[in-house]
Design a protein that fits this description.
This protein is α+β, with helices and mostly antiparallel strands and about 70 residues long. Helix content is about 20%, strand content about 25%. The protein is built from three helices and four strands, in the order βααββαβ. The strands form two sheets. Strands 1-4 form a two-stranded antiparallel ribbon.
Length: about 70
Amino acid sequence: MKIKIDNNQCKNPDTCMKCVQICPAKVFVLKPIIEKKSTYANRVEIKALFIDTCNGCMECVKVCPEQCINVKF
């Protein structure tokens, strides 16, 4: 299984988090992005970290308001 997230299209991952909340397998996490020459995260993105636990329910795809999640079997 392959889960692709278009983080350029995901506009407000830290306030939306619908995919993180709805996923019964807890596949998604918020990943801090630290820019060069900085010690703090400037922004966050959604990352599919625990892909092996995905059961293919597609709830994340259905709930995403920006349609930026693509799941392939």
